[in-house]
Amino acid sequence: MSWDIKFKIEDGNSIEKSLTYIPEEVSFYMGEILDKVDVELILNKISLVVAGNKVVHVSGFCGFSEWMKSNYEIPKYTKGVLKAEHDLKYGLAYGIYDEDLPVNVNTKTGWVCIGHPEKQGKAVEFINNCVAVIDDGKFLSLWLKPPSLPKL
């Protein structure tokens, strides 16, 4: 089931948070959520926390055994705000897609892409080392770069 979620990029400051990858838990981690959560939008098993219609937090399971090594490069991006315009019920979690998207990793650059790295759109770094690619309100890919990745 697809939900009516439109993503929008706005000018502004990206959020200053640290993203890490914890190999023992096979997950991305960003610490405590300090904002009042409206909804969680789920991409594969990654949670994008929305507060005040802004995506403010990224975390969740992402097993590296499923990652595909690739040479994809992160698209050019600007710093800004990622907004999720929705009419969803407060306090619940919703999948952005019905199925899991591919996960690619460029071991030379350290960027992990969840989604479609070949698709073009507007890219924004909305949290340090977290970049979303959006086209016509649709979420195409999420690029994450923790300080270190497990050996693949």
Can you describe this structure in just a few lines?
By secondary structure, the protein is mostly beta strands.
Strand order of the largest sheet: 7-11-12-15-14-13-8
> What order do the SSEs take from the amino end to the carboxyl end, as H and E?
EEEEEEEEEEEEEEE
Radius of gyration: 14 Å
The number of helical elements comes to: 0
How confident is the prediction overall: mean pLDDT?
93
* Total beta-strand segments: 15
- Sequence stretches where pLDDT stays below 50 over 5 or more residues: none
Q: What is the count of distinct domains?
A: 1
Query: Which structural class matches the secondary elements?
Result: mainly beta
Q: How much beta, percentage-wise? A: over 45%
Shape: globular
* Helical content band: under 10%
Q: How many strands, which pairing sense, and closed or not: the largest β-sheet?
A: 7 strands, mixed
Please report the distance between the alpha carbons of the first and last residues: 34 Å
